[in-house]
Amino acid sequence: METQQIDLDLEVLGSYFADDADAPATWEEALRTLGAAFVEHGCATPEYIEAAVTRERAFPTGLDLGAWAVALPHGDPIGVLHGAISVGRFERPVRFRRMDDAEREVEVEAVFFMAVDDPERHLAVLSKLMEVIGSGSCRREMLVAYDGEAIANVVKQQLERF
């Protein structure tokens, strides 16, 4: 079987949320907080964040992977200025509705919020992220990362590894 290396060319932004009053308490707060990093770093417009929140309401992205639960929110490329992933790790998990059953929720420990500027690349990014988050090493390394820079570095290294 032949494999092809995918050049994702994505900026990776990381955030760590301790179990305190400043941590997002809802999925919507989590998306808005992680989305603010996109805007701050010139990756996306505020309209993109609003579109992603609207999309999450209609099409939830929470995934229970057994060992941990994650969410993979995203929106249409309108408002994306350049490709990026805003990753947040939560000491106090945030409830997201499940992708496979929107009537149920899952307590998410990490959110991988994607802003992909090319619709054709979106599936490649999603596929690569699924490999990364499904690996035990990603979970282990993420759970001992206690600041945004460390979280971003874990994700960058994992993306390069797969």
TrEMBL record:
The protein's name in its UniProt record: PTS EIIA type-2 domain-containing protein
InterPro entries reported for this sequence: PTrfase/Anion_transptr (IPR016152), PTS_EIIA_type-2_dom (IPR002178), PTS_SugarTrans_NitroReg (IPR051541)
SUPFAM superfamilies on file: Phoshotransferase/anion transport protein (SSF55804)
Boundaries of every PTS EIIA type-2 domain copy: 1-158
Source species: [Collinsella] massiliensis
Coiled-coil positions: none
